[in-house]
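Why should sequence recovery work at all? Because a backbone constrains its sequence more than one might expect. Tight turns favour small or flexible residues, buried strands favour hydrophobic ones, and helices have their own preferences. The token representation captures these environments compactly. In the example below, the structure is given first.
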């Protein structure tokens, strides 16, 4: 989980059992450099699949596994400043998405070491592939890696990946962009390897089989397979939901480039019609300074992570998907109080009915997480919970005409008024 695509990774996931296209006939001359024949073979296939042509020849370099991991760890530290990652880790623990004992940085680096066989770096414009010794990809996986990373190299020449994937203040938006980037690379990579066109109709089980293969591949990666559900799902989202976004885009806009439709939220990835067929722009929520305590970190969850937070406790896909579906925008802040760390979170919704439905399911998830009886928070517009040394509060509000739900979790004895909700601002995202 190299968070939100600030480092673009190729996770080669369980597809080598799929029959690959035999591209030996009519091969173009090999290009200079490592794997020149494979690169030359893949370039016209990638261009045909995407409808775009390379403006400059792509560069490919090889690295040993140790060299590549050293390079990627440096990139990881550059993209994930220690204070930002610590704040993010604290937020997810306060939401109940990560175990309190997890060292997120160490875990992410372990995942990085397990998964990476190839990488495209937008800052150097170079595609790197592991070669020599343990960890080198098999020939079939090598072709997949090269094709996948060539799609990234081509995207970068039209979209500037370094620019669109560097936001550190809107995780949901960055995850949505990563879903576009990785989803297109995954979809087109599969298309090239399976012969192009509507390749899924030629496979037993079609697209559903591909999705299941990707999920099943976790078993071959011990670190990923043992990861908390939240980390697994966030890692898989760009590939699964991103490729599904691409599949629907191809059906709706068969002669257009997806790079002209960059999603602004995971909501638009999971519901492509809200990007392609309407002007459903997500809402940006802006906080004032904390009323009490010191701000540690702030960001947003978005529809996808809200689904995960609810599902973490309730384990009901239909209920949690429906509860998150009316999302309009959100923002949370981690605040250090005299009693310890607390969090306050404001979410705005498309309608009062959808806000009420979300609030109802959120309360259920709180009761389940803290092992409380149903209705333990009381009744009315403000519900209060006390358990395990924490005080929680769920309330409703109207912010600039938008129905909102406010959730706060603080240590016992700390004020639940971490921010002045009357000073929260809401506006269409830009």
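From this structural description, the recovered sequence reads:
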């Amino acid at each position: 989980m190299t968070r939100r695509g600030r480092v673009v990774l190729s996770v080669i996931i369980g597809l080598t059992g799929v029959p690959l296209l035999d591209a030996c006939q009519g091969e173009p001359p090999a290009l200079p450099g490592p794997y020149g024949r494979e690169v030359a073979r893949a370039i016209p296939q990638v261009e045909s699949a995407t409808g775009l042509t390379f403006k400059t020849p792509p560069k490919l370099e090889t690295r040993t596994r140790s060299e590549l991991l050293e390079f990627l760890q440096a990139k990881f530290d550059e993209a994930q400043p220690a204070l930002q990652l610590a704040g993010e880790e604290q937020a997810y623990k306060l939401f109940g998405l990560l175990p309190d004992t997890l060292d997120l940085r160490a875990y992410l680096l372990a995942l990085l070491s397990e998964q990476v066989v190839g990488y495209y770096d937008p800052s150097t414009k170079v595609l790197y592939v592991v070669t020599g010794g343990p960890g080198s990809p098999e020939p079939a996986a090598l072709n997949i890696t090269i094709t996948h990373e060539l799609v990234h190299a081509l995207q970068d020449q039209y979209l500037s990946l370094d620019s669109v994937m560097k936001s550190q203040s809107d995780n949901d938006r960055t995850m949505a962009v990563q879903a576009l980037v990785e989803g297109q690379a995954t979809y087109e990579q599969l298309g090239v390897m399976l012969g192009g066109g509507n390749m899924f109709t030629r496979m037993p089980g079609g697209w559903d089989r591909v999705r299941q293969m990707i999920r099943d591949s976790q078993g071959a990666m011990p670190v990923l397979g043992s990861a908390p559900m939240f980390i697994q799902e966030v890692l898989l989202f760009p590939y699964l939901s991103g490729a599904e976004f691409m599949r629907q885009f191809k059906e709706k806009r068969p002669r257009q480039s997806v790079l002209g439709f960059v999603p602004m939220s995971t909501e638009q990835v999971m519901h492509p019609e809200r990007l392609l067929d309407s002007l459903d722009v997500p809402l940006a929520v802006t906080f004032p300074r904390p009323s009490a305590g010191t701000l540690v970190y702030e960001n947003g969850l978005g529809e996808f992570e809200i689904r995960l937070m609810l599902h973490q406790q309730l384990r009901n896909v239909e209920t949690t998907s429906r509860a998150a579906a009316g999302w309009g925008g959100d923002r949370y802040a981690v605040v250090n109080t005299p009693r310890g760390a607390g969090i306050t979170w404001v979410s705005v919704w498309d309608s009062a009915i959808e806000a009420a439905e979300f609030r109802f399911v959120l309360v259920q998830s709180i009761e389940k997480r803290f092992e409380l009886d149903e209705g333990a928070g009381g009744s009315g517009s403000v519900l209060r919970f006390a358990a395990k040394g924490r005080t929680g509060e769920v309330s409703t509000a109207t912010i600039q005409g938008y129905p909102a739900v406010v959730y706060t979790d603080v240590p016992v004895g700390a004020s639940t008024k971490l921010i002045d909700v009357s000073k929260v601002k809401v506006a269409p995202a830009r």
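A few observations help interpret the result. The chain has two domains: 3-266, 283-428.
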